[in-house]
Amino acid sequence: MNWEKLPLGPLQTNCYVLANSKKNCIIVDPGEEGVRLTNHLQQRKLTPQAILLTHAHFDHIGAVDYIRNAYNIPVYLHNKEKNWLIDPTLNGSHLFMMGEIKIKEADHHFSSECEMTVGDFIFEVFETPGHSPGSVSFYFKDDGVVVSGDALFQGSIGRTDLPGGDHTQLMKSIHDKLLVLPEETQVLPGHGQPTTIGEEMDSNPFLNGF
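^ that's the sequence the OP posted. Answer follows.
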């Protein structure tokens, strides 16, 4: 599996396109710029099979309906944020005055941690709340990759001052679900540059002493 990072929208939220040798792909967090994302997929001759959402804050969901409608593919989200896609107050677009974002509900909802097969892709869903109640991370064990959303960043962690945020819960999520992965695991965060579990264990100041 190969992956590409596309920072999209005013907050430069990382959208990830994870593709296999058959040119099928899944899209994680299409936050904005649906036309640009579609053009990218066409240039790469990729066929999307699904949209996965690490959580439902506005900067991660803005292009969901554009891509869903363009390719007629399903959207996956944790059920704790089931209503966030249709509610600008919950997804934060109203709070941040970014223009109210309302999109259709997800087609499928995670209710617990599980291993999933979506199209050609097999991955594990980790519940990693703290940044938001329904935050999840997607772990592609065979490829040594975890998409962490806004839980863990290079040298930082997700903010917890938004509605539903909980710092203690986030630290527990990072410690119990992410730092237990092999140190060489690549971490693909929702913002900024990719990192590894080992790098964050060694140098992330927010994790020191936890």
